[in-house]
Amino acid sequence: MSEWVIVAIVGVVLLFGAKKLPDMARGLGQSMRIFKAETRGLKEDDERSAPAVEPSTPPATPTSGASPDAPATVRGTAPDGSRLPE
Predict the structure, then answer these.
(1) Fewer CB near the last or first residue (10 Å), C or N of the chain?
(2) Minimal CA–CA distance to 81: which of 72, 31, 12, 33?
(3) 7-52: per-residue pLDDT in tens?
């Protein structure tokens, strides 16, 4: 092993104490298991809901006689973009 790994291990043992390390490792393992189970559950939920989603249809275009290539006008504005009197 590298010198720095040994120094790090000794530092952790001195910092936390030999009695606390197993408890800390156990808590870390439980947290990792819970996290893994939750992420797996989220993936399964996404996979179940993915086939249920249908592609949306595009919004219907107005059939007011305007050509489909003409720019849409916003209510209350003239075709040149100026405001109409109310």
Answers:
(1) C
(2) 72
(3) 998 998 898 888 888 998 999 999 999 999 999 999 988 888 876 5
